[in-house]
Design brief:
It is a single chain. The protein has 729 residues and is an alpha/beta fold. It has three domains: 3-348, Glycoside hydrolase, family 3, N-terminal domain (TIM Barrel, Alpha-Beta Barrel), CATH 3.20.20.300; 370-555, 3-Layer(aba) Sandwich (Rossmann fold), CATH 3.40.50; 614-727, Immunoglobulin-like (Sandwich), CATH 2.60.40. It is built from 21 helices and 27 strands. Helix 6 (108-124) packs parallel to helix 7 (154-169), helix 7 (154-169) runs parallel beside helix 8 (206-222) and helix 18 runs parallel beside helix 19. It is globular and about 75 Å long. The chain binds beta-D-glucopyranose (BGC). Beta-D-glucopyranose binds next to loops.
Length: 729
Amino acid sequence: MESDKLSTLLKDMSLEEKIGQMLQVSGVFYTEDGVLTGPANTVGYTEEEIRLAGSVLGAVGTEQLRQIQTRYMERQPHHIPLIFMADVINGFRTVFPIPLAQGCTFDPELVEEGAAAAARESAAAGLHLTFSPMADLVRDARWGRVMESTGEDAWLNGRLAKAMVEGYQGRGGLRKKGRIAACVKHFAGYGAPTAGRDYNSVELSERTLRDDYLPAYREAVGAGAAMVMTSFNTLDRVPSSANRRLMRDILRGEMGFDGVVISDWAAIEELCSHGVAQDKEQAARLALDAGVDIDMMTNCYCRHLKKQVESGAVSEALIDEAVLRILRLKNELGLFENPYKDADAAEEQALALCSAHRQTARRMAAESFVLLKNDGILPLAAECRLAVIGPHAANPEIYGAWSMHAAPAETVTMEAGIKNRGCGQVCFAQGCALQEALGDQDGQGESTEAAERLLQEAVELAKKADKVVLALGEHRLHSGEAASRADITLPACQMELLRRVCAVNKNVVAVIFSGRPLDIQEISERAAAVLAVWMPGTEGGNAIADVLFGDVNPSGRLSMSFPYSVGQVPVFYGQFRTGRPCTEGTQEKYVSRYLDIPNRPLYPFGYGLSYTTFAIGPVQADAQRMRKSDRLRVSVTVKNTGSVGGSEVVQMYLADVSASVARPVRELRGFQKIYLEPGEEREVSFEITEELLRFHDIHMNYVSEPGEFRVYVGNSSETKNEAVFWLEE
Ligand code: BGC
């Protein structure tokens, strides 16, 4: 439809019909034939309200979506199509590694490729929009949703959020086949809940919000994301869905976002629980005023706006503005011409888990694994006698909390991956359950005997093996939404397994599955090698075998620091300068440190080992001084000094030595992933522009301040390889 016709359509719509467009209901309200069903309706919508709802979330599958759409449009007064949305977070039928793992690839192109594959699969299944990317910055491993973020660094998150948006949406318009719209979430600051507890309030200074938390959303918005979702949390005591300043002034005004804003699930009604709205009427008013266009899963808008417009308490112009944005999105997706978009049963079938997508998933998984420790026992030789032990060894549920369309039967387990590799003598044992059975933590009862038998069997296998691969980790639902944990160690039964196995075999490789950085201090001490594989997805097992046997040289680098212990969190490399900095190992008392643990995380951001070694030469800057209009080039030579080919992630960090406000000790401002054959050497260079040196100064202006800067180039956030330069007035 030509866009000017949308205004004519809007003028012709009744108030009720318009408000209907602003409601999103769940797909569980429909039967497979697209008929409305009663019992699932927990919100208490009337049939008419659901009938007018402009969008549906969570329903997938060509057949059902076609039916729902057809029936809806027949009755919708202007035959306006529905828009179908869902959480396609890390893949659809083909499951890619969780976003936190994707962060560890430091490979925006690969992340884009994964998002594009997910878009193709889900578009063919009838979807129009995904609630992804989650661009929230995360620094507290207790928070379960760190798995959905790409990590603790604003710069990396920004690059990857952009890559995801471009992967889903493409660059040629949303109508294009195989493309779906992207929704950036959760605006804003959802990644910083106090004490790591999900849905808790957020306290961020304006400067931290702007310097660290907003940039990744901004990148995603700049890449053209069609939608933005509000966050559940308060920011400066105001819940996002009622935060006019955040949604109108910052998102729309400063960032120039002109797409649709949707509330998070029930977030408008929750304005009452937050205590900023007395009732649903006021909640609806506040959210509309803040610029929230769609109410996800409450009846605040559909039941409480109309009478307020009629009484004059709410301006109809606000409603028109929201509805026009929604109609525009439907039009951009081409739904007025083709309400089914790419829904096609044959294609849905053909694309799901096709070999091209599986290959991308396998490559991405292998690239996301981070080798944290290696005493030299990896890679494994094909001929060794191997015991593969642990509750994750044969577990097909290694795909993260959001993959509700994944079928475990289609997932390659670690055991299957090792068998597929076809290596010498391998035997398998579960060793223990993923976690203690409820009620048996005190070690009573029958299940204790069964547990002991499992342990014994594992120990016997471990005794006879040359090497042991021990697959430990979290249950997939122990991270994700509403899955915060105060204790981020592994369950006692798994630790017992580790101790018993390590007592009989010194060659233990711990493979850790998790949705977050865990406290793995003891594992790291006992095991000879540690490989973090996150929740690796459909091809996880094959990818693990690729890396364990050295067919793929690990190149993942941590997107989030592994804490030394939970007492350190939030722990992240880009912390601020303090007045009493601590030098590692000091015994001095009055400095910023703990008495009982180090300040340093166990494994920092950017860290990761390889089967080869790289020598990174000194940082060469092409000048010592730069003017604001200059581009300063810094370079290093990187040489593969080992005997196998491998990829290195060369990282550039900048530090502002003295400024009007205390600055982070360093900040990532560039990275490049390069592959080098043994002996090969390459120059890697980065360009520093004045823009990279900006921050919010003492007056909250976004500027750079002249003076001394340090630039670090190396292969972790702790690199000491540095050069100094000056920015002139
Ligand atoms: C989550 C969102 C998600 C939405 C829809 C909410 O509970 O916070 O991230 O997109 O549900 O499923």
